[in-house]
Design brief:
By secondary structure, the protein is α/β, with parallel strands linked by helices. It has eight helices and five strands, in the order E-H-E-H-H-E-H-H-E-H-H-E-H.
Length: about 220
């Protein structure tokens, strides 16, 4: 099954002094590990750093995370709207205020996850889901999106906890997610950095640092 990749949106973080980094990829790709490594590196450089995640980056987000990942089965449209609701609140309460004061925000998942999971794998339409989430976030896109690419079977083998609703989906579902993430990266090479998630974490981290270093805001003296 093929899915159309929508064109890039015009929204970005250009109006803010801070920088916005998102980490994307399938389950088990190491997003949280890379987020924490980036946080330590950026803090050592003297930046204010906000490490967050979606869903669940706010108190309301924690409630929505439990509902969408561990609650009763949801139909695809309800699932997509819950993710968009979490994202709208997260951006309003956490991301935009941090960027406005010059912080570097690093999030474990952002809107590309919704485009890949709900838009492509749930077959709700990549363009429709992207438009919904751009509306929810007032067009906010990351300065850099790091895609940690991993075969879904390898990711499943890394899982330590009981699988959530999305993790329990079929191998075909997760293959579609991976394929669409890669299609998104192909469509926006200036925003995406695609890395092999089977590499040692420090090697992946070094590649992210190399790409991000030139994009960092200048520190006040």
């Amino acid at each position: 099954m093929s899915h159309e990749v929508p064109p890039s949106a015009s929204g970005d973080t250009g109006a803010f002094p801070g920088r916005f980094v998102s980490l994307e990829g399938g389950d088990g790709a190491g997003k949280t590990t890379q987020r924490d490594l980036l946080g330590a590196w950026l803090t050592a450089l003297g930046h204010e750093v906000v490490l967050t995640r979606e869903p669940g980056g706010t108190d309301l987000g924690s409630v929505l995370r439990d509902a969408v990942l561990h609650g009763d089965d949801l139909d695809p449209r309800t699932e997509a709207l819950l993710y968009a609701t979490d994202r709208a609140h997260h951006v309003h309460r956490v991301v935009r205020p941090a960027l406005a004061r010059g912080a570097v925000v690093v999030t474990d998942r952002y809107l590309d996850s919704s485009v890949a999971y709900q838009g492509a794998a749930r077959d709700l339409g990549a363009g429709e889901i992207r438009d919904l989430n751009l509306w929810a976030t007032e067009g906010l896109l990351p300065d850099l999106t790091v895609l940690l690419d991993l075969d879904p079977s390898v990711g499943a083998g890394r899982r330590a906890d009981a699988p959530d609703r999305l993790e329990r989906e079929s191998a075909a579902f997760h293959t579609l997610v991976r394929e669409h993430f890669l299609a998104l990266a192909d469509a926006e090479p200036n925003r995406f950095l695609v890395l092999d998630a089977t590499l040692p974490p420090q090697e992946v981290h070094a590649a992210v640092r190399d790409r991000l270093a030139a994009m960092l805001p200048e520190l006040a003296s």
